[in-house]
Amino acid sequence: MVAMLKGLAGLALLLPFGLKSCDGPAADVALGQLMRERVLLTATANEIITDLPIAEGSAVQAGDVLVQLDDTLQQAQLAVAQAQLAEAEADLERMRTGARPEEFAIAEARVEGARAVYQEAQASYERNARLVETGTVTAARLDEVVAQRNSALAELTSAEQSLQELR
């Protein structure tokens, strides 16, 4: 019985500790304002960073340059666009003022020269085509003559188009 009383007394001593753990975790409450210390910026282009002009932790204003990217590609594209603009402006000026008489004369002479070369190439083709039938000339030679005739025709067409553009 003494052992039982000792057991009950020990249980009675441990009971407050067991009941304390039933209360649940104590809630920590903190009131205040959360202020951002970091802002994530994403680049609109994927280029190599060449300069960071603002030191970390410095105050910045609207319009301040935060990061300098490598602009080599954009500079090249700008140069191409400027060249295209200059070419278009020159074309516009040519259209406004019209072609000079010398330009017409040069273009007409080019057409006449190309026409003569084509006529010669066509005659050579016809002559070689007849000779191939008799076996005097090889088919390879005829192929060369056909290529020359086609080249002369392309040059004549180009010259005629250039003359048309001037008109």
UniProtKB/TrEMBL annotation:
It comes from Alloyangia mangrovi. Keywords: Coiled coil. Pfam families: HH_YBHG (PF25881). The keyword Coiled coil applies. Residues 69-165 form the YbhG-like alpha-helical hairpin domain. Residues 66-98 form a coiled coil. GO terms for cellular component: plasma membrane. This is YbhG-like alpha-helical hairpin domain-containing protein. InterPro entries: HH_YbhG-like (IPR059052).
